[in-house]
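Re: beginner question about structure tokens

> Can someone show what the tokenized structure looks like for a real chain? I only ever see the sequence side.

Sure, here's an example I had lying around. Input first:
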Amino acid sequence: MSQMPAARLGDDVAHSQAGLGMLLGVLGGVVAGAVLVGATIATGGAALAVVAAVGGAAGLTSFGGLAGMNIGAAMMGPPTGKFVVGSPNVLINSRPATLTFVSMAVCIKEAGVPIPLATGSSTVFINIGMAGREGEKLGCSAVSVKMTSPNVLIGGESAQDPRVEIKPEVPQWAVTALQVLGVAGAILALPFAIATVGVAATIGGAVLGYYGGKYGGEAGRALGEALGMSEAGKRAMEAGGQFLGGMIGGAAGVKGVRAFNSRYQIVAQPGTLGMNGGNLKIVRRPPQPTTSLKPAKPVSYERPSGFRKGVRDKVWESARGPDGEVRNPGTGEVMDPNKPWDMGHKPGYEFRKHQQSAMDRGISRKEFLNEHNDPSHYRPELPSYNRSHAGEDMTGDYLGF
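And the corresponding structure tokens:
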């Protein structure tokens, strides 16, 4: 804060819209989260996906509340009181000057109890306190607003008087609750992310999501400054940049790690010690067989339209656990044989691998169908889990022969 108009007896004070901004942000996050959870349930999402959606809703609520509070803090509300005590012997424009610790303002948000001025000029002193100016805070976080002195400016950086404590505009417990809610949301979404894309891709998405949000927020604020926006507008642009940057960075991290894993692998070099990772080496994965999908009879290895009689029953029975229940892999959700379920390939038995292996071996159509109908290659899966490819083995290894 450089030179600002002096504040005097009778000048107005006002609170920011931080509390209202937080409330509106929370409501917006709750609505968006409810839509997310509802859409997940409506599309038949598995239990783990629904839990992840709840986590996403918690994250949206947390982000909305904190962003709304930050934006609202830059927006001043209507006057809530006036300075009622000033300097006993220093006048500015024929009115007593204000100073920290001594000057008081009556604020309707504090039930009319006089609140002392808490901050002022660090270089200009009046009587026993720092000079009050436009923009300086009271102990209740209200600030002196415009309609201060029209022609007297006071310089110096703003500083807090150690004799006056400043109560935050929004209670700390509310801020902490939103922060905890955001962390809890991330924890709830973690199992689904790991089951869907794997540990490495989840970590990659989290890291790039963090930096995407960080630099996206900086870019959004820079754009707001370039457009000449108010401080509230700049903060809104910053919040939007954080959200978009986090989403884009997270998606890029997941895709990048999965692309890396599909092309390279980390191997340990035999005969070396690896306490510092010196025995690890990144190597390209062996190339996949390039045999053309053109057998003597092109239809020999096409995907069959179904399974032989009794195969689905055998797969279901073989999947029963010690308690007699069949559970969806990855999520552990108990499945009902009378509700839709898919014949999911076990990891390493995926159809594309079986098809390529059959062509490489040149087996007959009959042999191909016999292998296709082997119950040991399958496991029951919920449709949503099966179509997400969450349990798929991304390597080229086929375990079917």
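Each token stands for a local structural state, so reading them left to right follows the chain. Residues 61 and 210 are 18 Å apart (CA to CA).
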